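Hi X.,

You mentioned you wanted examples for the new student's onboarding notes, showing what a folding record looks like when two proteins sit in one file. Here is a clean example. The first protein comes first, with its sequence line followed by its structure tokens.
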Amino acid sequence: MINLNLSDSDEFKAFAQWGSRFAGDGDGVRIGLQGGYRTDYAFITISGETISSNPTSRSQKSSNVIASEAAYPDVEFPEVAVRWGLAEREAFRIAVNSGLGVNGINLYAFGTYGKGSGSGDFNYRGPAGSYASIFDTNPAFPGWSALDLYPAGFTPIFQSDDEDSSAVIGAKKEFGSGLTLDLSTGYGSSRIDYSMRNSINASLGPNSPTSFYDGSVEQIEKSVNLDASYPVSIGLYEAATLAGGLEHRSEEYSIIPGDQASWEIGPGSPGLPCCSNGFPGYAPVNSGTYSQDSHAAYADLLLPLTESFSTDLAVRYEDFSTFGESFTYKLSSRYELTPSFAVRGSLGTGFRAPTPAQTYSEGIAQFLPSASATITTAGRFSPIGLVAQLLNNRDGVNIEALKAEKSRNYSLGLVWNTDFGLSTTVDIYEIVIKDRLSTTPYYVLTADENAALSALNIPNLQAIYYANFLQNDYDTKTKGIDIVSTYQREMGAGTAAFSAAVSYIDTSITGGSRSTNPYSKRLTEDALPKARATISADYNIGGWGFTTRARYYGEWSYWQDTFPNTATPGAAYPKYDPQVFGDIVFFDISAKYDVTEKMSVRVGADNVFDTYPDRARWQTFRGLVYSRNTPYSTDGGYYYARVDYAF
């Protein structure tokens, strides 16, 4: 559970920050403003922020550029055709929080709105090498080739424009008996519009545009909640609290089709690839609106058994229109052995139903599986869609409708707060998850299967090399330990504060298809560092403040898939070759100075020694230098300056 505290301050304050990478790219600006107004019975607080950042690039010459240079020596090709790094990004966000007291009833309303856009490069398409088929001539367009438009090839640029909004209004009242009632309703929406530029639908030949609207996806959620709490006496326990509530929630997921040119199969097909190259648009047949509803009831009993020992029991019943019922619980306790030392623990169950997006969404992309392969069309399809129905005709294949994930969790912890400034918590835990959702192994479509899909004449179902699906695929057990410690003391004329957070997490596959597939098993278990740590030190003296921080990540691994050369029904990549990435430490520093009581200036650098991880062995033919799967930034050092001002 995460407790979010909304600001209700009536203070006016602002900040501005500029930063850039040591390599000279990725510079960006953040500007924020907050203000409010308060009376004895009402308040309103408004916060806003705008962000603008330029892309980064950590790339090298790709094999497609090298092959194209050799085939067309008189054409000038780009040295770096793809910018592998952070995408260009612009965003604006605003949040409003308000409250009003009327006749003993507290009315409240809060909401957020955000809008942003970002763009990034796809793989370079050169006239020689893996993407050469785009530039072929075709009898449907005599005398024309995509070389007329892109003589040095092209890099499609993918853009997403997002818009998010949320709002909650409610009323809360506390009665003389101690009963508290809270009635609220909420609304949230999230929409992403996809587009491509510097691309082509080669099957349309000279009639193809170079920019496409590829369609949109949108999620809308609505909820109504009634919460209540009441102090109760249970036997000898007079300070108990009983809480509970009811909830109705609805979810609606929509796929909105793109421009016709983004998904149309033109007269140049099958010789020339169809659809907006890089990311085919959503066709009307792939689009639609899907929904599910749920109703829930929940209760919580907080029982102080003694002054030093308390326990809390929570239960929740939920009924989904698409997945049926669930019952979950959580039991937690805390025992103070001394005023400064306590033991805590919990056990419980969890339930997570698939969303309409997970059940119905389908996505297709074109990419390079290896340096020697040709352009490949691949996709993740709905487990109840046409592609799944076709593959279920194979012996031994059973792609099913999704069901809910279920979990059990246990934790035990220690809390130690001393009178000399040291505070420490230690928590060990175990989480068991059954029927986890994951993409299946890859199914390579046979020529007959592709012919059957093509006969349906459905856009986006043409010449698919492989397909996979979300399924309740495997079971896991995760064991971990978290240690957090802080220490504060006076040092000289100033105050020093130290903190350390260390975690070790080990996840193992315990059942399902991934337990028998060596590649999938190792990829899941070792793809993230098991050990992480952050250690920081702060020192404040006068108007100055100094911070140093070290961030540690343990070793992790990535496995390169070996694409099968034949369309083996249901084939998963049978070979894997791991690259182990060593542990790494990043150091951050910053200094702050209070210019006046209202104004402060901070300068600093993250990754001050400009440390980079091991270079990747795989996917270098695409121009990659560092793995795209790293759990940390691969863009090197970042320096910044920030000004804060309170009016």
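Then the second protein repeats the pattern, sequence line and then tokens:
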Amino acid sequence: MTAVAPEIRVNTAEFTVSELSASLKRTVEDAFGHVRVRGEISGFRGPHSSGHCYFALKDQTAKIEAVIWKGVHGRMRFKPQEGLEVIATGKLTTYPGSSKYQIVIEALEPAGIGALMALMEERKRKLAAEGLFDEGRKQLLPWLPEVIGIVTSPTGAVIRDILHRLEDRFPRRVLVWPVRVQGEGSAEQVAAAIRGFNALLPNGKIPRPDLLIVARGGGSLEDLWSFNEEIVVRAAAESMIPLISAVGHETDVTLIDFAADKRAPTPTAAAEMAVPVRSELTIEVATLARRAFACWQRGHEARRNELRAAARALPSRESLFAIPRQRLDHAAAALPRALRASAHVHHRRLTIASAALTPRTLRMQIERAFDRLRNLDARATQTTASLARQRRDRFATLTARLGISLRANADAHRHRLARDLDRTHRLAERAARAIRVLIQARAARLDSTMLLLNALSYRSVLARGYALVRDADGATLRDAAAVKPGTHLTLEFADGTVGATADGEAAPAPVPVKRPTAARPRNQDAGQGKLF
């Protein structure tokens, strides 16, 4: 058997690779245009150095490449994240450089977690309005805590990473409160752990931590949802112990991060925030000690040099006391002469003063003083008498004016009382007339009402010969068809009631005879006729 060579069609048109790629690009773009694709973000490592974002959207069986241009990415409110399920809207196109198709994303929104994110934003606004996220509530972390409390799962890698990092930097005593960090009941356990650490006594059997770390590894929004619960956020905000939130990776955000005193991007970073590096502290302390000793030595040497210079500049003791000693000798030599001169001066002053003090001079001064005293006594007597007369005259004038005022006031009150009494009598007469008129009007109205009541009452109908029929229950019977044979009836007349029993079926009512109406005169008005 011989192989048959494939037929070569020489007349088929030839395409270059670029032409074929351009044709495929136009075909894909024209056939699909704008599409909405749901999938999980895969291979996202952040924006490229150019600002564009390159990643893939995948599901269980397929994957499609995706790109977000720099300008679109800057305007997006929801940024892409690794492992997040999203709904992407954009244009389907091809990339000739690698012969593959891709979607150019223009809008991105979360899928599956949209309700959770909306609930998270609503809860965030509510708690922020209560002031749980205010910066003024946040506490400063202790520089070197003695005891560190950790709220996390005891079986995960988080606690090992924190302990290992603390051992490398500065070993401290660690208290671990084991909790579930995912699933039902985990939020209550985390809140109870935070409150339990705060309830410990500082000097109790179990020491109270100086710092708390709430930690968990990364995961999806559903996995981290326990740390968005209101009970956990309130427990973190109420904690009197400084608290570090280390939930998820750096890109994961939970509500406890806003209520905590400090947020760490990872649990390892939380351990680094909690304690300093002991080796670095040792080196720094040694360096500071050397610098302090060198400064002390330099200062001590400078003070010694200053003391020596000051000692050289100061004069000797003999030179300091030479001039004062000489001044003291001169003063001691001049002191006897000065004492004698002072005694002579005081003796002269005493002699002059004693010459002026004779008995005659003293008697004259005493007589002048007595004369002056008698003059003052006479003037005081005259002044007192004049003042008394003025006060008596003023008192008499005021007494007269007061009597006139009292009489005028009494007359005014009598006239006013008379006017008020007259007015009271007039008002009493008007009130009596008004009451009589009102009683008459009410009596007339009552009489007219009684007449109207009697006119509208059914008893006036009974007085004209009619009777009111009631059944055994007292209900009024209006139709003969409602009365059955043997029914007990009560007939009410104008002057009393009578019992009766129905003995037959209801007879048909007689047909009323229509009375002939008189012909209206032609010249009479077509409207309402005359009443009289």
